[in-house]
Specification:
Distance between the termini of chain A: 27 Å
Order of helices and strands of chain A: EEHEEEEEHHEHEHEEEH
CATH superfamily of chain A: Class I glutamine amidotransferase (GATase) domain
CATH architecture of chain A: 3-Layer(aba) Sandwich
Oligomer: homodimer
Shape of chain A: globular
Structural class of chain A: alpha/beta
Number of helices of chain A: 6
Largest interface: A-B, 19 and 19 residues
Largest sheet of chain A: 7 strands, mixed
């Protein structure tokens, strides 16, 4: 347990179908560094997690509907993967507007696996450099991004990784970048 | 039982995660009209189907690996949906090459729900008009397509529908279009 994220509050945006380890491990790293986190979703109650998309893998309790959340209340945003998770988030205008507004503030945004689909939907990838799960790279390129195959990619505010195999490096990177980001006045 | 598809052979390309009704109902319509069909996939044996992406929904027996299939052996191509199905197909170079080559022949290609993702991957959607499940429409537009919200869309060789709710109209349309397509010499 360290304390470099003391006073920092991270929004995690996810819904049913989220890949369990891609929410749980980053969450553990953020809390272990002294940060706070809130899970935002499309509905209240619990969301159902999956393992490798196929197997049910328990639930996470939602803190707030994304429609009721304010971008200004958070210092960073985390978008986990799981194929079905962003596939639903991107159809929700409140979720997409929250992500677009968050990116526009310049605050750190971290995403892994299929998570960047929601960034493509928000139209904020033009000229950005990132990585992702292989299946969505054509969609990200068609949305204007430069896509590479690396463990962790950092392009200004954007931190990205390819999938569960990258979680150790991803978690280390997000703690460092979230800690070093300028805090809003 | 009618016979308008007598002598016509349809390739169905799908893998694990296929939405059961989007394979089963069109298959029934094609066989009921006197046609033949073969299930092509990424592996031999059986593929696992799903219901609304979440629930296991039995299996389908694969007839042939897509890597071993020849475009010239089929009169039409069917690409069912299910989120995880095209998400895997599009990462397989043999599957993507088969789809691209099929489109280039001008023979009919029918797709529903998330199925068009594989067409986006194959780079064959520029200037095409189609419909799909709502979540992937931004990806299709970014791939150069005109995307509309209609029950069935027919643009030259391409027949598309939005999801399970459109299956009755989709099945009727594919039987008609597959029957009327010019047969290869």
């Amino acid at each position: 347990m360290t304390n470099e994220l003391h006073g920092r509050k991270v929004a995690i945006l996810a819904t049913d179908g989220v890949e369990r380890v891609e929410l749980e491990e980053p969450l553990g790293a953020l809390l272990g560094a002294g940060g706070q986190a809130e899970l935002l979703s499309l509905h209240t109650g619990e969301i159902n997690a999956r393992q490798m998309d196929i197997d049910p893998a328990g639930t996470f309790t939602v803190d707030k509907k994304v429609a009721d959340a304010r971008v200004g209340d958070y210092d960073a945003l985390l978008l986990p993967g799981g194929t079905m998770n962003p596939d639903q988030l991107r159809t929700d205008p409140d979720a997409v507007a929250f992500v677009r507004e968050f990116v526009e503030t310049g605050k750190p945004v971290a995403t892994i696996c299929h998570g960047p689909w929601t960034l493509a939907e928000a139209g904020v990838l033009h000229g950005r450099r990132l990585t992702s799960w292989p299946s969505i790279r054509t969609d990200l390129r068609n949305a204007g991004a430069e896509v590479v195959d690396e463990e962790v990619v950092i392009d200004r505010q954007l931190i990205s990784s390819r999938g569960p195999q990258d979680l150790p490096a991803f978690c280390k990177a997000i703690v460092e970048r979230f800690a070093n980001a300028p805090q809003p006045a």
